[in-house]
Structure formats: C-alpha cells, structure tokens
Amino acid sequence: MLVIDNRLINPDTNMDATENFNRMMAILDTLSEVVADIEDSQLFKVAFDSDGGSSVDTQYVIEGDKAVEPDNPTKTAYTFSKWMKGNTEYNFNTAVKSHINLKATWTPIEYTISYTLDGGEVATANPVSYTADTDTFTLNNPTKEGYTFAGWTGSNGDVAQTEVTITKGSYGNKTYTANWTETSLSEGE
C-alpha cells in the first residue's frame, strides 16, 4: 500500500530540502515496486456499457483477479436485469484473463392504465397496461346513449381531448376519465 506523508503536499509545512528530497525518494521507490508488481502480471480493462442507464466506472483488474460487481445502474422506466458478455450472462466469480466489455440488460417496467367511463362503453377495449417499449397507440373513444363523447381528461390534463395518444417511450401509471355532453333533443320530438 502506498502512503504519502501529508507534509509533502501541505504548503504550510516547513520542511528542509534534504528531508523533502529523502521523502520523495522513498515515495518513488515505493511506486517503482508497485509498477514492477503490475508489470509482472497483465492489467486488464473491464468496461461497462449501461445501455442508456446511469454510468458505471471502468475497472482495471490484474490478470487472474476478479472484477467487482458494481452497484446496479438505474434507467428511467426500466429495472436492471444483468450484465452480459456477448450473448452470455457475466459471472463475477470468473478470473479476468483479457479485456472485457459488459453490457447491461434491462426489463421494462409495466405501468397500468385505468379508465372511468361514466356509463359509456368502448367497442374495442383500450390497453390496461403498457411499457416504455410499447408501440405508440391512440385510445379508442367510448360511446354512451344520449350523450356525445367530449374527450378524455386525467393523465393528459384537465382539458378534454377526443384524441389521446400514448407514445412509445412514455412511462408512469395513467388514468383517464370519459367526459360527456348530453345530446339535445331536436324540436318536434
């Protein structure tokens, strides 16, 4: 282990030149021993590609040692699954014998969609769940006898919209309420 006397890096210390020189030489000797130990074995790079998630630091591992499994990265709308080396899940109990590139795999989080139809019906049911990987879709509008559909409110805001689209890449639970306008009877009925 390399230990540096903090007086060497503290500008307020009054060390004489000889003492400072001797301490620096001791540090250089220690460093040369560390470098020699590393040169006797290979040093390999273990790189982590978080595939859009939070960054993970690269590790440098001496041949035969093991990489340290990092804390799981995070990614909005996904749960970390595992580290892959090519098409195989990486085992962190394996001795490192070469440079390694690992890539994170993710499982999309499933979010719910709930609807309040207030007596209305939808001919073709709307999805009740989705993930960030779900293709873009538009909600099917309901019908209600004696009423005209005025639009959806809820996760899309307080202003009723007759066309609500959930785009691929969206996330979070959603709720929608059907809003209605009573159909007026025409004169003479």
Summary keywords:
single chain; 189 residues; Immunoglobulin-like; 5-stranded mixed β-sheet; 12 strands; elongated
Helices and strands in order:
Blueprint: H1 17-39, E1 43-49, E2 59-62, E3 78-85, E4 88-89, E5 100-108, E6 111-116, E7 129-130, E8 137-138, E9 147-154, E10 157-161, E11 165-166, E12 174-182
Parallel strand pairs: 1-5, 6-12
Antiparallel strand pairs: 1-2, 3-4, 3-5, 6-7, 8-11, 9-10, 9-12
Distance between the termini: 96 Å
Question: Tally the helices: what do you get?
Answer: 1
Radius of gyration: 32 Å
Count of strand segments: 12
Averaged pLDDT: 88
Q: What global shape is seen? A: elongated
Order of helices and strands: HEEEEEEEEEEEE
Helix content: 10-25%
Describe the sheet with the most strands: 5 strands, mixed
| Structural class estimated from helices and strands | mainly beta
Number of domains: 2
Portion in strands:
25-35%
Strand order of the largest sheet: 2-1-5-3-4
Residue windows where pLDDT falls under 50 for at least 5 positions: none
Descriptive notes:
This protein has one helix at residues 17-39, and strands at 43-49, 59-62, 78-85, 88-89, 100-108, 111-116, 129-130, 137-138, 147-154, 157-161, 165-166, 174-182. The termini are far apart. With 189 residues, it is mainly beta. It has 1 helix and 12 strands; from the N terminus they run αββββββββββββ. A hairpin with a 2-residue loop joins strand 9 (147-154) and strand 10 (157-161). The chain has a 5-stranded mixed sheet with strand order 2-1-5-3-4, with no helix packed on it. A 5-stranded mixed sheet has the order 7-6-12-9-10, with no helix packed on it. The protein folds into 2 domains: 43-108, Listeria-Bacteroides repeat domain (Immunoglobulin-like, Sandwich); 111-182.
